[in-house]
């Protein structure tokens, strides 16, 4: 195994470049994204208009990923990634100029968020489909442990953003994000990986988009394992939407200084994710055990999330830490397995459909849980959502064992 890693090192030139670009863009986005929300509240003082801003940003993520998938399976994903980063740099630069000139208003903000949400939707599918092409054989697990660690570190940008927003204002933060996107885009132009799938595609064929889109749907129908995984994570995302909508209000309504207690409690989940990422970078578990491990993790994490608010605070912190470690395990097994399994020429369509389905699940969970909590206790609503998720794991992942096992139990 050591010889194989020496022949296929993870830190190739292209992988190093994409990781450096990811660090820079995550850093800028984590700070400016939170600052954007604070700016909305400062401009409007309205909870409704803040919610409308969130909806406008997330609305494109319901349909755009699946629509973008066929394009990203026929054209250059690398060019798409760096072009969108250049566009994002220009958009944040324009925002900064509007604020400095005093011309910024809520209309510009909502329009800009709709554009940013559309860009992010396309970018995420392109990135998710291009990133695995830069990972050398046998290093998928290690590579995705790095990605999950970087995403966890981004959560620490929230308190930094709050501090900087009050010290220097939002315009300098937008300018900093402009620089971050420019640096990331320039780095990404230096990636040398060949995109053979795009060269093989007959892009001039009449009606190619409809045909390519239909092929993506047909592929997911034929692949029973991928279909089961997609359906399960749609249900899981619905429960996570409920978690995100109910936990903070529950803390705030039941404890003095509840929002601070919430940050301290959920912070242990971030620490767990960092610990889990470090663990997976150094550890290789047997491929034949991945399916069983994943199913166990799905059941345990759902049980934790559904019951954690009923427990004493100290136990709550411990379970949040465990949830963070197990959450990275779930992510790592699923992403490394599916991205090494799906052919390069179909990754865009699969990732687009997966992202569309899970985003729809997340938004549905947020809406339905908020509606349910009007008449039912918040903890009971959360427990019900995760009870359904446990059932989904048993039926979809357990009930399709052979098909899912074929995907998960791979040396990735």
Overall description:
This protein has 18 helices and no strands. It has helices spanning 2-7, 13-44, 47-58, 60-72, 77-101, 106-130, 140-153, 157-168, 170-188, 196-200, 208-222, 224-254, 258-282, 290-307, 313-341, 347-372, 378-398, 401-408. The longest helix is centred in the first third of the chain and has 32 residues, at 13-44. It starts with a helix and ends with a helix. The mean pLDDT is 87.
What is the number of independent domains? Answer: 2
Uncertain spans: none
How many individual β-strands? 0
Shape: globular
- Radius of gyration (CA) equals 21 Å
User: The CATH topology of the largest domain, please?
Assistant: Growth Hormone, Chain: A
DSSP helix fraction = over 70%
Main sheet specs = none
The proportion of strand residues reads under 5%
Q: How far from one another are the termini?
A: 12 Å
Short description:
By secondary structure, the protein is mainly α. The chain is built from 18 helices and no strands. It folds into 2 domains: 8-190, MFS general substrate transporter like domains (Growth Hormone, Chain: A, Up-down Bundle), CATH 1.20.1250; 206-412, Growth Hormone, Chain: A (Up-down Bundle).
Blueprint (SSEs and pairs):
Blueprint: H1 2-7, H2 13-44, H3 47-58, H4 60-72, H5 77-101, H6 106-130, H7 140-153, H8 157-168, H9 170-188, H10 196-200, H11 208-222, H12 224-254, H13 258-282, H14 290-307, H15 313-341, H16 347-372, H17 378-398, H18 401-408
């Amino acid at each position: 195994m050591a010889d194989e890693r020496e022949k296929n090192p993870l830190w190739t030139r292209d992988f190093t470049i994409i990781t450096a670009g990811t660090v820079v863009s995550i850093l800028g986005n984590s700070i400016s994204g939170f600052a954007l929300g604070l700016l909305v509240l400062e401009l409007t003082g309205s909870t409704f208009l803040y919610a409308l801003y969130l909806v406008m940003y997330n609305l494109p993520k319901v349909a755009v990923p699946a629509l973008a998938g066929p394009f990203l399976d026929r054209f250059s994903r690398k060019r798409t990634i760096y072009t969108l980063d250049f566009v994002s740099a220009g958009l944040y630069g324009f925002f900064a100029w509007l604020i400095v000139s005093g011309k910024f208003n809520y209309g510009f903000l909502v329009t800009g968020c709709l554009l940013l949400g559309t860009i992010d939707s396309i970018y995420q599918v392109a990135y998710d489909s291009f990133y695995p092409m830069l990972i050398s054989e046998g290093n998928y697990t290690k590579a995705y442990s790095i990605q999950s660690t970087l995403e966890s570190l981004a959560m620490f940008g929230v308190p930094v953003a709050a501090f900087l927003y009050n010290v220097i204002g939002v315009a300098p933060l937008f300018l900093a994000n402009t620089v971050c996107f420019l640096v990331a885009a320039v780095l990404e132009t230096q990636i040398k990986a060949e995109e053979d799938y795009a060269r093989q595609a007959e892009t001039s064929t009449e009606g190619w988009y409809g045909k390519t889109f239909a092929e993506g749907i047909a592929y997911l129908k034929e692949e029973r394992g991928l279909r089961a995984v997609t359906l399960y994570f749609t249900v899981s995302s619905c429960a996570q939407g409920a978690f995100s909508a109910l936990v903070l209000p529950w803390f705030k309504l039941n404890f003095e200084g509840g929002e601070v207690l919430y940050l301290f409690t959920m912070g242990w989940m971030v620490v767990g994710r960092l610990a889990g990422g470090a663990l997976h970078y150094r550890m290789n578990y047997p491929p034949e055990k991945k399916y069983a491990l994943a199913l166990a993790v799905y059941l345990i994490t759902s049980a934790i999330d559904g019951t954690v608010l009923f427990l004493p605070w100290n136990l709550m912190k411990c379970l949040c830490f465990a949830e963070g470690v197990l959450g990275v395990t779930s992510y790592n097994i699923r992403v490394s397995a599916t991205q090494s399994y799906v052919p390069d020429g179909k990754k865009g369509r699969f990732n687009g459909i997966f992202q569309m389905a899970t985003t729809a699940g997340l938004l549905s969970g947020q809406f339905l849980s908020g509606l349910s909590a009007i008449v039912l206790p918040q903890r009971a609503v959360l427990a019900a959502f995760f009870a359904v998720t446990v059932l989904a794991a048993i039926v979809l992942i357990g009930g399709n064992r052979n098909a899912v096992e074929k995907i998960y139990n791979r040396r990735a």
